[in-house]
Amino acid sequence: MKIGELSRKTGVSLRSLRYYEQQKLLSPVRSDNGYREYSPFAPQQVETIKLYLNLGFTTEQISGFLHCVLQNKEAFCRDVLPVYESKIAELDEQIRLLERIKSNLEERVRSILTERDAAAQERAKGALPNGVDHDDG
């Protein structure tokens, strides 16, 4: 099958299919006229690549175990588990970072609200004239 047909069958752009080839994830044969010819198993291969990309793996990581998982179950591919464990550790670190960012933002919101409440109380006591509000937005 040609690249256009593979693209239609898998929903993957021509550009992405060429990129997968460049990354050695797909290996079409070149015909005499230079056209790429993909095997009947190429759609399954592309779907597998999409699965791993959706799990957050890089094409480099995928290339390390793709051949094995296309031939066997993941459980029998020794290179898969370390990549999964590394990805989980990476995600855990990203989650910790996002939790710190969220905590800092929540602290800023509390601070802003506390400062506004204090200003409102001062206005109510007559310490600040009405309309004086240091809110920029």
Describe the structure.
With 137 residues, the chain is mostly helical. It is 64% helix and 3% strand. It is elongated, with a radius of gyration of 27 Å.
What is the element string, with H for helices and E for strands?
A: HHEEHHHH
Radius of gyration: 27 Å
Q: Strand count, sense and closure of the main sheet?
A: 2 strands, antiparallel
**Estimated share of beta-strand residues:** under 5%
Number of separate strands: 2
Q: How is the largest sheet built, in terms of strand order?
A: 1-2
Distance between the termini: 58 Å
Structural class: mainly alpha
The overall pLDDT average reads 91
The coarse overall form would be: elongated
How many individual helices? Answer: 6
Low-pLDDT segments, ≥5 res = none
Query: Share of helix among residues?
Result: 55-70%
Q: Can you summarize this structure?
A:
The chain is mainly α. It has helices spanning 3-10, 14-22, 42-54, 59-63, 66-71, 80-125, and strands spanning 29-30, 36-37. The radius of gyration is 27 Å and the shape is elongated.
